[in-house]
Amino acid sequence: MKFVEKIKLSAGRRALGKLPDASRMRSGSNFHDAQSIGIMYVDADERYFNKIKAFAKYLKDKFGVRHVRCVGFVNDSNKNLPIWQSQKLEFEYFTKDDLNWYLRPVQNVSKFIKEDFDILIDLTSGDQIPLNFIFKESKARMKVGLRDSLAARQCDFMIDLGDNPTIDKYLQNLDVYLSNPQIK
């Protein structure tokens, strides 16, 4: 990692720590009760993107969730944007070009942050500063993320995947815990 990148990362963590938590109405929910779900992810490759897309479709088809919106962080410039990110119906993205010096997203995410989701799911390992800004600023009623991550302080529900976390294992655990209609 370059020296400037290390300084930006350090400044971003510091700015994130100073940012006050969003005032929000906290309430537990499950997939059966939720009307809107937000999903945050790092766009690594097309296969990963297709898993996220299939999970969003699964939430709509099986549980009748009306509104599933996803925002992905592409850790590259707009010029090198992957072709699969060209569709923007329910999937949005932001890139390095949309970040300020502190790695805080300043473009393309304001609507997502302001949206009052019943459940907001962080599908990252919690180490992405730009996504942590969105997670912290969101007014979602219930925030779900990984235990032992940087975003764990903002989580209302945490999942522990142990030493070997994978996206498949994470999605499976989300389904097991949040598809239970008795969890609220």
Descriptive labels:
single chain, 184 residues, Rossmann fold, 6-stranded parallel beta sheet
Describe this structure in words.
The protein is of the alpha/beta class and 184 residues long. It has a single domain (3-178), classed as Glycogen Phosphorylase B (Rossmann fold, 3-Layer(aba) Sandwich). The protein is built from five helices and six strands. Helix 1 runs parallel beside helix 4.
What is the strand tally? 6
Number of helices: 5
Q: How many structural domains does the protein architecture include?
A: 1
Rg from Cα: 16 Å
Shape: globular
Helix content estimate: 25-40%
What is the CATH architecture annotation? 3-Layer(aba) Sandwich
How can the largest sheet be summarized?
Answer: 6 strands, parallel
CATH superfamily: Glycogen Phosphorylase B
Question: How far apart, in Å, are the first and last alpha carbons?
Answer: 43 Å
- Give the low-pLDDT segments: none
CATH class: Alpha Beta
- Numbering strands along the chain, what is their spatial order in the largest sheet? 3-2-1-4-5-6
Structural category is alpha/beta
The run of helices and strands is HEHEEHEHEEH
Q: How is the CATH topology named?
A: Rossmann fold
Mean pLDDT: 89
Residue share in β-strands: 15-25%
